[in-house]
Amino acid sequence: MSGRPVLSITGIGKTYAQPVLAEVNLELYPGEVLALTGENGAGKSTLSKIIAGLTPPTTGQMTFLDQPYTPGSRTQAERLGVRMVMQELNLLPTLTVAENLFLDNLPSRGGWISRSRLREQARLAMAQVGLDAIDPDTLVSDLGVGHQQMVEIARNLIGDCRILILDEPTAMLTAREVDLLFEQIERLQARGVAIVYISHRLEELKRISQRIAVLRDGRLVAAESISRYNTDQLVALMVGRDLGEHIDLGERHIGAPVLRVEKLSRAGKVCDVSFEVRAGEILGISGLIGAGRTELLRLIYGADRADSGRVFVGNPLRETKVSSPAEAVRNGIALITEDRKGEGLLLTQSICANLALGNMPAVARHGVVQSSSELALAERQIKAMRIRSSSPHQPVGELSGGNQQKVVIGRWLERDCQVLLFDEPTRGIDIGAKFDIYGLLGELTRQGKGLVVVSSDLRELMLICDRIAVLSAGRLMETFDRNDWSQDRLLAAAFAGYSSREAMLGEAVSPLQEFSV
C-alpha cells in the first residue's frame, strides 16, 4: 500500500494463562479494507480488542497517526475515532433504538431530552444501514437479532470514525442487510476510513477487502493482497492443512423414528408442521429468515408453548407432553441454541461450571457439587471436543466463539439425549472448526441419535443431511431426500409459502431474504 499508515502495530503480543498473540506486525492504511481471518482461537478478537482499547497488549507498541497509541479504555479509543462492532451486541434491550444510538449524547433542551431531535437524528443514522422502515421508538428487545446487529453498526458510525473494526458483522444479517452494509463500507472507504473486517466467510472477504491478514495460533502467517490467494490456499493458511468439500459421516444405520411431530402450531409463527426423525439420521430444516425455523425448535423443546399439535419421542415412540425445557431434557431432547452467548452459556463462569449445567445429577451429591466429578466431566469433554483452553477453570467468556460453541455441545453430549436440536450450530465458526463439528454430528448419528439441524447455509445442509425439510411462512412445504434435492428446488420451496411480495414485506421481520449458497 502507498501512503502513510493510519495505524502501525509492532511486536504486539498478549498472554493470559498462556500466549494467545506473539510478535504481530501489521499496518493499516486509510481507505482500505483489511480482512482479518484465521481459525477460532487464532487471536483475531484479541488483536482487535487491543486496537480498540478493550485490553492492553503484554508486549509491543502501536502508533496512530504517527503518535504513540496506548488507549486505556474503549472510550478513549472511540474519542480518537477507533471504533469496534463486536460479535457480542452492546445494546440495552429495554431502551429504544434511538436511545441506544445516542445514549452517550442524548439531545436535550432545558435539561430535558428533546424527543423530536432524538428521533430525527436516529432516522438519519438508521438510514445509513437500511433501517428506514423501523420506528426509532421501537424497543431494541422487540427487534430480531439481525436488526439489532444493524443498530449496533449504525451506533458505531455516528461521529468521527478513522478506524472501524467489524467482528463477524454479517453472521446474523440477511443478504439484503449484507448488501447495505457493503455499500456503507464503500462510502467509508471513500472518506478515508480504514476498516478491519473479521470474518470466516471467504467469499465475503474476496468481495469487500483489498488485503488479507491471516493469524494461526496467535502468529501472523500472511499479510498480503487478497487477490494473490484462492479459497483453498486461504483455508490452508488458516488451518495449516488442506480441507476438502466432503465430509464422511462414517458407516451408519438409520433405524426407527425417535421423534415425531404432528400438526405443531403457534399463531403467527408455525402452522400444522409434521415430520419424523429417525435414529442415526440428520434432518435439515431450511427456509428463509422469518420462516419459523427457530420457533419450530423452541416449540419442540418446550421453550415456547404450542397452540396445538403433538410431540412423540423415544424408541418406541411415545406421546410426550413437553411444556418446558426441563421436561424436554427429562424426555431426552436437547436444544443447542443459536444464541450461545445469551442463552447457552454463563460467560463469567468456568468451562467446568458450564459443562456441569444440565448434568448436576452426575456431579452433585446431596445437592452439593463435587469438585472432582465436575473436573473429570470437564476434562472428558475438553478432550472429546478438542476445546482450546488454558485449563478447565478458564472463564468461558475468554474462549473463542468456536470453542464456546463446543462447550455448549459438550454439555449435551454428556447428558446423552436421544434427540438433539441444533440451531445454526456453526454460525460464527471457522472452517476448520466447522469440519470438526460435522465429524461430531456423524459420530452422534453412529450412536443412533436423531439430529435436527437448522442452518441458513444451504451448502452446509446439503453436505451433512440425509433429508432436508423446507419451511416457508411457518408451513412445511416439502421434504427432500439426498438424491432428490438441488439448490434451485430448495429455494423454490422456501419461497412457495409466500403468495405475494406484499405478504412477504408485511412481516414484522421480513422473510424476504436469501440463503448463504
From TrEMBL:
Domain ABC transporter positions: 4-242, 249-498
Protein name as annotated: Sugar ABC transporter ATP-binding protein
Any Pfam family hit: ABC_tran
GO MF annotation list: ATP binding
UniProtKB keywords: ATP-binding, Cell membrane, Membrane, Nucleotide-binding, Repeat, Sugar transport, Translocase, Transport
Originating gene: rbsA
PANTHER family reported in the protein's UniProt record: CARBOHYDRATE TRANSPORT ATP-BINDING PROTEIN MG119-RELATED, D-ALLOSE IMPORT ATP-BINDING PROTEIN ALSA-RELATED
Annotated SUPFAM superfamilies: P-loop containing nucleoside triphosphate hydrolases
Recorded superkingdom: Bacteria
